[in-house]
Amino acid sequence: MRGNFRNQLIYPSPKNSGRSRLVLGLLIFLVWLTGCQQNELSLDIRLSDLVTPSVADNASPANQRVLRVAVATVNSPRATLTYYAQLVDYLAAHLNLPGELIQGKTYAEINDLVREGNVTLAMVCTNPYLEGQEDFGMRAVAVPQVNGQAVYYSYLIVPKESSASSLSDLRGKTFAFTDPLSNSGRLVIVDQLVQLNETSESFFGRYIFTYSHEHAIKAVADQLVDGAAVDSLIYDYFAANEPEQVAKTKVIA
Prior knowledge:
The chain is of the alpha/beta class. It has two domains: 134 residues, D-Maltodextrin-Binding Protein, domain 2 (3-Layer(aba) Sandwich); 99 residues, D-Maltodextrin-Binding Protein, domain 2, CATH 3.40.190.10. Helices cover 32% and strands 23% of the residues. Strands 1-5-4-6-3-7 form a six-stranded mixed beta sheet. Strands 2, 8, 9, 10, 11 and 12 form a six-stranded mixed beta sheet that branches. Strand 4, helix 2 and strand 5 form a beta-alpha-beta unit. It is globular, with a radius of gyration of 19 Å. The two termini are 34 Å apart.
């Protein structure tokens, strides 16, 4: 099913332990290339080749070549613009092209943009990449490393004053998932519930989707929910660089 693009945000590039282990990078640079061989071990990527097909075919000469980079909604729209605008600007300058940073509300919307050829590159999370690979031949260009590892975790967090010490303590409570396709923000918890012969509907009193890990952290900090599943890299980044973002929360698993 195609995503609803009403809430899509597009920004021109400015000029100036018991925790579940998730292998593959949090964000994966992707380009839509079909017909790939499953046993290929390396890719020869030329940035000059990464031009949105629909733009090259249909646009006027003055606007014929545009670098459009879509970013998954891991952070809030404001934070995403802050963190990724410089990257888009760098790539656009390298290619001597105008650049656009595109955000969708959901992971599914980003996959739809790649599938339909409406973006040149996308940075997506692990599970959306795997679904896109199976669905329409999405291919990885690069996987980032943090501290020398392409590994991250799903953190189960609660308000700092909460007495909960495990997922079982959140039975009947209000819970925040990040996105329906998120590994660290939903699917890890769903898998744990399956092992308990439970579902999200039967276990939690209520659950919501925040559509970003940053918003899920804030929902817990403000005690709008009793718990949330978030990406370890996002949580650890805030703990190290913006500790006020996580000061009212704690990791319990």
